[in-house]
Amino acid sequence: MIEKKQKRKRTKKKGGRYKRGEYSSIKSGQTCKFRSGWEKVYMEHLDADPDVSTWQYESFSIDYVSNKRTGKIRRYIPDFRVEYTDGSIEIVEIKPSRKLQKPTVQKKLLAAQVWCADHGAILRIMTEIELKAIGVL
């Protein structure tokens, strides 16, 4: 008699593979829950940068169309909103460079570019390359 293999139910590991935790900011006055080590080191960089007056983590959302055929609307929450001492505003997204070509990421970044153009802000995408260039990785 042939035995049937039982399918094992996949379970998600506790903690995942990304570094998670909380960071208390000097400049924003908030305790933020970060979802990656890259976000944490960028938070530390923002607090140490004298040109940054204040920053917020995941403080607002941008609506975008995820499916043109159905018109499905989703919400994209950028990682950071950074205000500089000169009054300029940047929206910062932290992503591994290998994920930038994914269609879902492209839709979100396009929506962020439109939002920034409408609100006088600059979109900045920080990959491991840019994070190494500013000396945080």
Rg from Cα: 19 Å
User: Strand sequence of the main sheet, in spatial order?
Assistant: 3-6-7-8
What would CATH call the architecture?
A: 3-Layer(aba) Sandwich
What is the strand tally?
8
The average pLDDT value, as a whole number, equals 90
Number of separate domains = 1
CATH class: Alpha Beta
Which stretches are low in confidence, meaning pLDDT under 50 for 5 or more residues running? none
The secondary structure category is: alpha+beta
State the distance separating the first and last CA atoms: 58 Å
Using the coordinates shown, work out and report the CATH topology: Trna Endonuclease, Chain: A, domain 1
Strand content: 25-35%
Report the order of strands and helices: EEHEEEEEHEH
Q: How would a crystallographer describe the biggest sheet?
A: 4 strands, mixed
The general outline is globular
Q: Helicity, in percent?
A: 25-40%
Tally the helices.
Answer: 3
Provide a short characterization of the protein structure.
With 137 residues, this protein is α+β, with helices and mostly antiparallel strands. It is 26% helix and 30% strand. It has one domain: Trna Endonuclease, Chain: A, domain 1 (3-Layer(aba) Sandwich), CATH 3.40.1350.10.
Describe this protein's structure.
There is one protein chain. The chain has a single domain, classed as Trna Endonuclease, Chain: A, domain 1 (3-Layer(aba) Sandwich). Strands 3-6-7-8 form a four-stranded mixed sheet, with helices on both faces. The protein has a two-stranded antiparallel sheet with strand order 1-2. Strands 4-5 form a two-stranded antiparallel ribbon. It is built from three helices and eight strands, in the order E-E-H-E-E-E-E-E-H-E-H. The protein is of the alpha+beta class. The termini are far apart. The mean pLDDT is 90.
